[in-house]
């Protein structure tokens, strides 16, 4: 039997480990269980993705003490350009002085997922309030009136007040709890890699919508030798995925260059190519008896808007706020009233963000000249409406809705 902690967090990925650290900073102890070893999760090439970290999510990292470690590794996003297949009539989001934000990273920062994980794991190792169980397999979960317990395959029993499922999309804890899931497959796969390019990106994130699927170029820091780099997320239809994966690097770059229309001049691969299947899911319930879902265990969306992780970090902020306020009035973390409050707070916010992203993906996926003309008209209209542009920029920054304290500046 291991010592009792306040939380037993199953899944120590980007969201689960951020929760453990944020909890520790608030004096809340955690067992963190992950089936993988940290060396596997941070191996070069294990996760080749980069994530757009919104301003609000950056505030969370700063508030839990990671700013100094992460600051030099993030590439500021100063503008977002949205186009319908690189045709005329694009929409630019670039905050102006009047919008009160002159900071270079006012639309967020790009980080390699590997760098985020390394920083989180380093901080977790130094944190006495976190008991980290790596390469651990869960053999059983119990939830009852007096607490929760998790039995590991090696016989170790972990006890606590609240069980948190942070195991990502395939969360077995969510499925075992019997939570229903709205789910659909986009029948798309994201081809992910990084590119070197001749011309600088100017800190612009490009979202180029093609009927076959969106194509995103996201700015990364130049290499120490001064080579310009961007992350690529190219969405292809499932029926074409096998063919694209099978392309030689040369042929792949030729296809990518065709979609970039000479934007950054000559390109080269800067990282291995990876493919991720894309689907949408949203759990109808995110709490049960002494159980809370966070991150991709609760919701998963198309990566085009770069909001999946940001949404998970909002879950972290909300859960910590609810638990710390509860503690002040003597309630333990597994208290049903606190969990109900967490669910009320997060369900609507997550659903709105996911619906907007899903709507965009579908709207831009309709092929044909007429839909394209209508879309470009729409982009032009938004371009001329500062209030609407501000709404979308606030969404990108993660500053809309009721923001947890930890995500405020
Ligand atoms: C191509 C692509 C690009 C993306 N880009 C962005 C972006 O720019 N911005 C953004 O905000 N989001 C982005 N996302 C979404 C983001 O990556 C996810 O939302 C985020 O990684 C979810 O984190 P998580 O910790 O909830 O889940 P995961 O990252 O899946 O972590 C789950 C953890 O749980 C562990 N685990 C799994 N099962 C078990 C088990 N049974 N027992 C114990 N441990 C277990 C795993 O080993 C892992 O460590 C992107 C997604 C994709 C596919």
Please provide a written account of the structure:
This protein has 12 helices and 20 strands. The chain is of the alpha+beta class and 409 residues long. It has one domain: FAD/NAD(P)-binding domain (3-Layer(bba) Sandwich), CATH 3.50.50.60. The strands form 3 sheets. Strands 5, 6, 12, 13, 14, 15, 16, 17 and 20 form a 9-stranded mixed sheet that branches. The longest helix is centred in the C-terminal third of the chain and has 28 residues, at 336-363. The mean pLDDT is 90. Flavin-adenine dinucleotide binds at residues 10-16, 33-36, 41, 49, 51-52, 138, 166-168, 172, 190, 192, 233, 276, 295-296, 303, 306-310, 312. The site of flavin-adenine dinucleotide has 33 residues, from helix 1, strand 3, strand 12 and helix 9.
